[in-house]
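In line with agreed milestones, the collection of sequences with tokenised folds has grown. One record among many is set out beneath this paragraph:
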Amino acid sequence: MAASGPLNDQPATVTWWLAEAMVKRYNKVHWQSEHNCVFNERTATASGVNGYLPIAQTLIERNVSPEVLRDLIKLMVLSRPALPHTVFNATSLIEQPGKLLRKLHILLEQMPAEQITVKALAGTLGMSERTLARKVRNETGLAIGAYARRVKLSQVGERITLTSVRSA
């Protein structure tokens, strides 16, 4: 779509590892690696496995009644709550748009939760606490503590899911 022009001057999603190349090649598109799904008036773009689910759900919503949609959601392979709480939004490494967030994400996953402090994170990343907090807020819109909790909750959720799959 980028090559043929419908995305010019529109936001569109791209995976973080491909973002730089896409910006260079298709610089008229407003690439967003922090989102896995972007809807515009006439287009929708998705990146990653989970990006296509919202597009599919939107297309289904346009063609069936709310009751049928509810039944389809129950039958979908990846069932999920209709309105998940924001604290449980997944924060995967691959979704991190910048190098700093990817390093921070890996560090947070490796550290035990009780050892995570802004001071420890900033020291390991070679910057001041204030600089780290500012950069995280600028890139994510979240305070560093909220970002760290989101990463750890996502990590715990994955472990619970994988443990229950193996046990079943």
About this structure: The radius of gyration is 19 Å. Strands lie at 11-13, 30-32, 37-39, 44-46.
